[in-house]
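ingest -> validate -> predict -> emit
validate: passed (alphabet ok, no gaps, 854 aa)
predict: started
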Amino acid sequence: MGSTAIALLWLLLSATPPRPAEPGNICGVVQDQTGAAIGEAALELTSEGIRFTAHSDASGQFCFNRIEPGDYQLTTRARDFRLDRRRVALETDTPQPLTIVLSLEMVTQQVTVAEGPADTSSINVAQTQLNQGLIQNLPSESVNARLSSILTLATPGVAADSNGVFHPLGEHAETSFSVDGQPISDQQSRIFSNQISANTLQNMTTLQGAPPAEFGDKTSLIVEATTRSGLNAGKSGTVSIGYGSFDTPTASITFASGSKTLGNFLALDGLNSHRFLDTPEVDPLHARGNATSVFDRLDWQPSEATAFHLNLSAAHSWFQVPNTYDQQSAAQDQRQHMTSFNVGLAFSRVLSPSLLLTANSWVRQDRVEYFPSANLFSDQPATLSQSRRLTSAGMRGDLTYSRGRHSVKGGIQFQATPLSEFFATGLTNPGFNSPCVDANGVPVPNPSLIDPSQCTAMGYSQNTSYQPALLPYDLTRGGTLFTFRGSATIYEGSAYAQDSIKFGQFTLNLGLRYDNYAGLSSASGVQPRTGIAYQVRATGTVLHFSYARVFLTPYNENLVLSSSTGAGGLGNGSLGATNVQPLTPARRNQYNVGLEQQFGPRFNIQAEYFWKYTNGAYDFNTILNTPLNFPIQFRESKIDGAMVRATLNNFHGLSAFAVLGHTRSRLFSPEIGGINFGTAYAPVARPDHDQGFEQTTNVQYQFHQRSMHGLWLGFTWRFDSGLVVVSVPDYATALTLTGDEQQEIGLYCGSVFATLDQPLRSCNSPHYGATLIHIVAPGTYNPDTNPSRITPHNLFDFAVGADSLWKKDTYALSGKISIVNAANKVALYNFLSSFSGTHFVSPRVVQGDLTFRF
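emit:
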């Protein structure tokens, strides 16, 4: 299918003869992240020895006139702002106005390279900048969480997981977003919330290093996102439609309009798929879903010094929870609905040439409804239902001062988060929590067995994994549904100050942050943040060291219930006021060392090593393969790792990047909170966000505009060495799994493979194992030093597109075809994970898109 689609695209390209090249214009506006114009910015346009210069006027506008069509590099510099460098492709028929958004030169570990043999530029250590071109062209591994997929592929030190979840720098989900200055630290993957559409984004910057003082709470990965604006856009827009594997139609509309004082940008997105979530089987069973969203940004700039912008968004999604073969045969029909909205108002005022005031206020909400099957016993091995609401309302203000060797920033923030939760569950499979096991170690599905003392008399052995606390909720043994209803409001207040001071080739960063948390538990934390960087001018090298004290707060999703289940969660503890142990704020010490090396103007390498020591570390536990996740807290965690990013900027149309990561993560029990249907976690163990090595390499080639209609080719290679598998410590344990579970991992004995109806219960062959997980040798398992893991795997993606299949006046048609997992590799993200469940990576997906621009 892929080769046929590519051939059709080439036919379309060859059907339209190229037009004679005529000079055109490259025009646009330079503005800051609030939308305020930046005057007197210096712009330089270069290509193959050709060089043009310009400056933005008081309204931020600039123009290069009568430029020959082709590929150019545009560099923008402005005092107190970070340098911006991007590729610009000039097409004379439809000159598109550019919006160049510059960030203030305030981020920790940022060093300005002095004049020298190399180009004058700003070196951002432990950062990744993602422009709109990469956001649009990078093939997405997740149909329902494209933003998460882009961050996973393009950010070093990030391990991939299912359903748009990713593990940044050894943590389960510690990512904070700042969208046009609005902080969002709650979970943004599509199983928790309706993620912002990638079509709304102008650019993103990710911070992977020790966090500056302006960022608090979940700081393993910080994503600063700037949305698209309608300022100076005139009237323009796009209409896109697409179709892909698993009956996946997509559609989106964007429309921008505005002058230099008033602008509006609107985006509408929708998709439907028969493989909406990643599935616990290779084949998608009961896996339909759809999502729709609307985003609108209104900008008003009444003067050169003052700017307002209002973000409005709403989204809804509905999806079936994918079944295993066993659940499909039982006619299980669990599903989830989510609705979200966000209102964010931002203001900025230039008080003086050195002083900038910014302010944000917001209210947003996620409402989640989880529905069981109509017949509760069709739900296997447990019936589940949930209704929860998470609302966040807050405000923040920041002052930025930059003069001489100092760049100072300070601010305050306050937010309130009301939570409301309902949850119900009950066991529906008599074998799931049976007190007895047979001679093969398999739980006996006899509902008359209710106590381990019955086992011996009936010829069975006691089940060491039996949890008596679950007996009252075992519907097959006369139990009743466990139900919970609760609510709470979390209040958080913060203040910070930071200064970046330049001393010749040194840059010293000093910061201090204070957070106060008042919810189901209360605490406060003073957090010093410091770093020093040294630039070797002769070699273009930057070395740095940083330290950060971080005050972390519990995940808000399902926090009320998780704080009410006691030690070990529902299964290992007992409910009641005497055992309530609310999750408490955690404290971390983080150390980072790294370097950045610039090789000429086009090639750059960043390398970083980090150590994180956390008292009161958080994670989620997941019920079976569902999107129901509950926060848990461990006594402590120790995490260290390395990350590398190599970037090749446009060189005769070729651009590439490679990101690499290594993470060693350890959790130390005891644990509290959660809904734990499994056994207690090991005293010291590797969680399933520990991965020895992951890497992504992306290469794109842009053909010359004049002869190839803007044709570009892309290739992505992703390698994962494999997340930890906690549930299968040895082959003997694998033999006790169900036939469905055994065939999911490709369990074999000699030449015999387990099937759904014929599980393996013994093995006398010296050749045994599993194809999709690496089970450690007998007697060598250690949950800390030698756990079982997912088998290493390589995934290859391809993309081909043309920016101008057809053009006339101000109209143009572009096309793109992407192939995800082109080799159709069968691989797992995880297996029977208490943190994620069981999920396969996506099979081969072919997606085609057409975009009409006007």
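Residues 819 and 846 are 5 Å apart (CA to CA).
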